[in-house]
Amino acid sequence: MGRFTVCPKTGLKRGAWTPEEDGLLSAYIMRYGHWNWREIPKYAGLSRCGKSCRLRWMNYLRPNIKRGNYTREEEELIINLHEKFGKRWSAIAASLPGRTDNEIKNHWHTHLKKRTKQNTTSTKAKRKPVGCETLRLKESANCYQAISRPLILESSGFLPMSPEKSCDIPSSSADSEVEIIQKQVTYESPISSSDAVSDFSGSFWTDEPFLLEDILNMSEDVTSVLVDPSFQFPLSPLGRDIYPYDLYHDYDMDIFFNH
DNA sequence: AACGTAGCCAACCGCAGTCTT
DNA sequence: GAAGACTGCGGTTGGCTACGT
């Protein structure tokens, strides 16, 4: 959002993330996991504070993030959970896979709060259709992203991603894609799948810090692919695209939907 | 077409809880 | 047990975009 480009106190960059920064952070975490947020920007080659990196990853770059297109079921669940938990957004988010506390909080303030007020003031008030009524371009892009990214990289490790209702993917095709991807991971990943799992648990340590050079030395220069917006389906170090929709939504979206 | 306004949402801040030494 | 470091959470901000005039 560019409130400040550089923090005057620390000299660290602030504000909106660039595609290059997203690529560097994603590439680093996908390869090494988030072992120490404070140190990550240093080794990933980012002029950001660790807190900013964590926020960006958790709310935006994480592989299984769902964006936009809240289903009626999700909204009802949020309302019910809000009655139960109040403003404990993280507790609410725990019941909505793929949704972040920040996004739920925003959605509550912009949509659901009004609706609950309307419900209390007028039980006859018509419900606005929820979900896809204002499908924006970037949300469409993210819907695509969800289709193309069947891996969930939670702390528990890799899990096949269930197809999203809002995207109407036949489960059979999604499942078969998962199979293909799992083979790709086995074949392409420079680290074993068990290592990968431990990486994402955030519980591994080594004697040597992970350097940016390590990423840059990856086979076929993965990072250059990651930061190249003209590359349509960039692969993560684990063999799948990890690119956030932000990288794409400024470009011609036809590259997604014409394939 | 130009301008003003409102809504959306990414990102920041500060605080609290947890972990490590 | 104390102190410092780290992480996570909720509140808030402000730039961007869509919409109305």
Q: What does this protein look like?
A:
This protein has 259 residues and is mostly helical. It has helices spanning 19-32, 40-44, 50-61, 72-85, 89-93, 101-121, 137-148, 171-188, 193-201, 212-216, 222-226, 254-257; strands spanning 151-154, 157-160. Among the domains are: 19-61; 72-119, Homeodomain-like (Arc Repressor Mutant, subunit A). It has a two-stranded antiparallel sheet with strand order 1-2. It is elongated and about 50 Å long. It contains 12 helices and 2 strands. Mean pLDDT is 56; it is low at 1-5, 122-209 and 218-259. The relative contact order is 0.15. It binds a DNA duplex (21 and 21 nucleotides) through residues 1-4, 14-17, 36-38, 50-52, 54-56, 58-60, 87-90, 101-103, 105-107, 109-111, 136.
- Which sheet architecture does the biggest sheet show? 2 strands, antiparallel
Low-pLDDT stretches are 1-5, 122-209, 218-259
- Globular, elongated, flat, extended or rod-shaped: what is the shape? elongated
- Major sheet: arrangement of strands: 1-2
Query: Could you name the CATH class of the domain at 72-119?
Result: Mainly Alpha
List keywords for this structure.
DNA-binding, Myb_TF_plants, elongated, disordered N terminus, DNA binding, mainly alpha, Arc Repressor Mutant, subunit A, 48% helix, 2 strands, disordered C terminus, repeat, 259 residues
